[in-house]
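ugh ok fine here u go
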Amino acid sequence: MQGRQFGRDSSHRQAMFRSLITSFFEHERIETTAMKAKEIRPMVEKLITKARTKNINTLRDLLKTIRNKDVAFHLLDEVAPRFSTRPGGYTRIIKTRRRIGDGAEMAILELVESGRSLSDKRKGETAASKGTKPKSEESKTKEKEAGAHTHSH
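structure:
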């Protein structure tokens, strides 16, 4: 026996997973129980890896799991190209809270930052290192650092 059963028969479990996966790719993040997030994470990552090769066969494979054509095209056209150079590890699970009704541990399953936004962050760092920050802000940060170092006990 492999995988969690969640108190459902196999067809109900598969339908639940398809629904969660479709919602995940539609919104690029979902909040669900930690156990469900752990269970669908490998499925999501395999679909992203598959979607990196864009052709009609890939689309047909995706539509076996993702039952919404618009969401499947979103995965093919927008999500998968962001991870074209990343060798796996496309998602992260962040544990958030306990659910009020039953105390189940909740978690957010989301896509990690894409290479594009990472390069945007790097552009911001290079601009700051070139001294584009106004003098007044630099002097304020230096004063804060100096003050923090003199008052420590």
